[in-house]
Specification:
about 120 residues, alpha+beta, GTP Cyclohydrolase I, domain 2, four-stranded antiparallel β-sheet, 4 helices, 4 strands
Length: about 120
């Protein structure tokens, strides 16, 4: 089983969406990331340099979510995944939740979840 680092439900206020109101007023988003990487060396050595620094991971996600604007949650998730892969994970899972989507009914949130690896997407046979 692969080792994982998980940052669950990081909350940000940002301006993502297709509608003009979303771009002007903004709203809350929650982002969860799972990074698949070997934690054996970190567990044996007890050294931060042998792992992925949670603080840095959080800051990188925050920079993307709060520093750029996207129409689609899919594009936001893809950008986060690509950045986290450059920090040393073999694969990442990113879930982005829009906490108050402009939909006519009641729901907890709208979300997208993607999984990416350094090897790229799985090839179809």
């Amino acid at each position: 089983m692969p080792d994982k680092i998980i940052l669950q439900n990081m909350e940000f206020y940002a301006y993502h969406g297709v509608l003009t109101a979303e771009k002007e007023l903004g709203q809350r988003f929650q982002v969860s990331v799972t990074l698949f990487c070997s934690l054996r060396q970190a567990g044996r050595s007890d050294l931060l340099t042998a792992s992925l620094d949670y603080s840095r991971l959080y800051q990188e996600v925050q920079k993307i979510v709060e520093g750029r604007r996207f129409n689609l949650l899919e594009a936001l998730a893809e950008t986060i995944a690509a950045r986290l892969l450059t920090l040393g994970a073999r694969a990442v899972r990113v879930k982005v939740k829009k906490m108050h989507p402009p939909l006519p009914g009641r729901l907890d949130y709208a979300a997208v979840e993607i999984t990416r690896s350094r090897e790229g997407p799985a090839k179809k046979q």
